Amino acid sequence: MWNLSSKFQQEFGKRAAVNVEYLIANTISFTDNSIDDSAGGLGNFVVGDFVRVVAVNNWNIYARVIAATANKLTFAAGTFAAAAAGGQVFIETFQGGSFAEIIQNGRFDLYTGTRPGNADEAETGTKLAELTLNGSAFVSGVATNGINLGVLDGNTLKRAIDPATGAVENWAADGLANGTAGWGRWYSNTIITGASTVATRMDGTVTTAPGGDIVMLNGRDIVSGAPVASTDINVTFAGM
Q1: What is the DSSP string of 184-212?
Q2: 10-14, 185-189, 204-208, 232-236 — which is least confidently predicted?
Q3: Do the bridges between strand 72-74 and strand 167-168 make them parallel or antiparallel, or are there none, so unpaired?
């Protein structure tokens, strides 16, 4: 069972108060995998948003953002057909309401030993790895290369589908030290380490058995500089 930080619990308790971001404009054009706005009006959308697009050709498309700037939202190839600017376009997304959204585009770190008594406490043990999307560099507060939960299997939340590949996200890292993984901490996109009551994060226990919090089927031993064995996460909700 995962331990949720105080801040995480507060955010989840407010889940009814979601943000609705929307844009109606005629400055928007499309390629097969992007929405482009010459007026720079896309700044409130972020990586991981599921957006609804109502536009030319009677489109009513739902898709997930994989890269975002004020001038461009990028999606999986083939999401749209090319279309020039001029027609009115409506784009909306609901942000912040779900468990997965609270910690979207985060980072997951593995440590030796036993997890702290609660997720507000400082990290314990030796940090062994920092898992990111495809093992790529991650910067706190920047959505790029963060990892996500998103697939619900029965009453268990698992890793998200990467819209860039159509497969589950590849969470990867090279070992930072030698040791045996005992627990892990998932940080939200803005990483706060150490003791904190304002950090959004959750702690789980590592196991080699399917169905546990953090599953390392190929073993829990991590070697410095070597790829970390396949790691998966299960967040199970009782009573669903």
Answers
A1: EEEE-SS---SS-SS--EEEEEEESSTTS
A2: 10-14
A3: unpaired
Q: Are the C-beta atoms of 218 and 230 separated by less than 8 Å?
A: yes
- 173: Cβ contacts below 8 Å, ≥ 6 apart: 129, 130, 131, 132, 135, 227, 228
Task: Render pLDDT for 59-93 as a digit per residue (tens, 0 to 9).
Answer: 778 777 878 899 999 888 888 888 888 877 888 77
pLDDT digits (tens, 9 = 90+) for 125-170: 999 999 999 999 999 999 999 999 876 676 678 888 887 787 889 9
CB atoms within 10 A of CB 170: 16
Domains of the chain: 3-12+101-236 (no CATH), 19-95 (2.40.30.180)
Structure tokens at 82: 């090319």
Q: Are 168 and 159 in contact (CB under 8 A)?
A: yes
**177: which residues sit within 8 A by CB, 6+ positions away?**
126, 127, 128, 222, 224
**Helices (runs of H) and strands (runs of E) counted in the chain:** 2, 22
With vertex at residue 222, the alpha carbon angle to CA 219 and CA 225, rounded to the nearest 5 degrees, is 140
Q: Contact, 223 vs 147, CB < 8 A?
A: no
Strand bridging mode 214-215 / 201-207: parallel
| Whole-angstrom distance, CA of residue 61 vs CA of residue 80 | 8
